[in-house]
Write a structure and sequence with these properties.
This protein has ten helices and ten strands. The chain is α/β, with parallel strands linked by helices and 328 residues long. The strands form two sheets. An eight-stranded mixed beta sheet has the order 1-9-10-8-7-4-5-6, sandwiched between helices. A two-stranded antiparallel ribbon has the order 2-3. Specifically methylates the adenine in position 1618 of 23S rRNA.
């Protein structure tokens, strides 16, 4: 099997197509979403900023960004649920789009013929929101959390721009990834996932306390993560490495159901084991795509079981479908 390919350089900023380069324009964001004004604070230099240690402030910022850049009129999540930083999530979508570029035309495929599976979509539905707005793709989002799915359905119902863009499915097995939610003969152009990072609730809590100390915002016995997160959003028995091992194993069972399987990988120590698993499972191609936002460095790992001829056939079929959809 070919060795995993890696992008030559680690980026120092967001993807070129990302809408969130530079500092947040709080004046403009407050105009779009006046509720954000209550959380904007001046910096010593006189600029506007936000108390990012405050979960309510982070939620208000996300609501404003989604309204300004992605046409989402109503967005909310229950207290304690993951409220992800939008610029980094947008980066994942744009790099995923690059994976799907036709090598002959250099064009990113757009439109509803492109289907993406979001594993662990959460109550926030960030990936489908961004992916549909930027590229017109359709999504299936899965989650083990019934409440997250209920909130997600309310989100879709409250925003006409998401009509037909997102189907939400319950994953009944907390240990399964694709099994139990993929339908017979169903195909996806890509899967994506932001896997649980920690191996236990105690480890997740320790990490939150450490962040609070670094931010100088420790408020008592019970830590409050500024970006939130329920148990299964933050931890999985065995941690990220075990979760991704299981994902790799299950992806092999659906090797012809998807062009690119992808996931975020937070810990570089997870990579060797994941590469080894994919090699044993017969992945034809494995790519590692570095991402960076400020001082935070992460990466996407993508793999496919399709050989060159199967990849070409897939692209041709998708191109025909897209052409038909545009003229129907």
């Amino acid at each position: 099997m070919p060795q995993p390919s890696h992008s030559a350089t680690v980026p120092t900023t967001l993807h070129p197509r990302n809408r969130h380069h530079g500092r947040y324009d709080f004046v403009q964001l407050v105009q779009v979403s006046p509720e954000l004004a209550a959380f904007v604070v001046p910096t010593p230099s006189g600029d506007a900023s936000l108390n990012f240690a405050d979960p309510a402030a982070v939620k208000a910022l996300n609501r404003a960004l989604l309204k300004q850049f992605y046409g989402i009129r109503q967005w909310d999540i229950p207290a304690g649920y993951l409220c992800p930083p939008i610029p980094g999530r947008a980066d994942y979508l744009h790099y995923l789009a690059d994976l799907l570029v036709d090598p002959h035309t250099g064009v990113v495929p757009t439109g509803k013929s492109i289907r993406v599976l979001d594993v662990g979509v959460g109550a926030n539905c960030i990936y489908p929101i961004i992916g549909h707005h930027e590229y017109g793709w359709r999504f299936v989002g899965t989650d083990v959390d019934i409440t997250a799915l209920r909130v997600g359905k309310q989100l879709v119902a409250s925003n006409p721009t998401l009509t037909g863009a997102l189907e939400l499915r319950h994953q009944p097995d907390h240990n399964a990834i694709f099994s139990g939610v993929l339908k017979p003969r169903e195909v996806f152009d890509a899967t994506m996932c932001n896997p649980p990072f920690h191996s236990s609730a105690a480890e997740a809590e320790t990490s939150t306390r450490r962040k609070e100390r670094n931010l100088g915002t420790s408020r008592g016995a019970q830590p409050t993560p500024n970006f939130g997160g329920q148990d299964r959003e933050l931890w999985y028995p065995g941690g990220e490495a075990t979760f991704l091992w299981r994902m790799a194993e299950e992806s092999a069972l659906f090797r012809e159901s998807c062009y690119w399987f992808t996931t975020l990988v937070s810990k570089k120590e997870t990579l060797p084991g994941l590469y080894k698993s994919l090699q044993k499972l017969g992945a034809v191609e494995v790519r590692t795509i570095p991402m960076a936002q400020g001082h935070k460095v992460s990466r996407i790992v993508a793999w496919t079981f399709l050989d060159a001829a199967q990849q070409q056939a897939w692209r041709e079929k998708r191109g025909q479908e897209n052409h038909t959809n545009k003229h129907s």
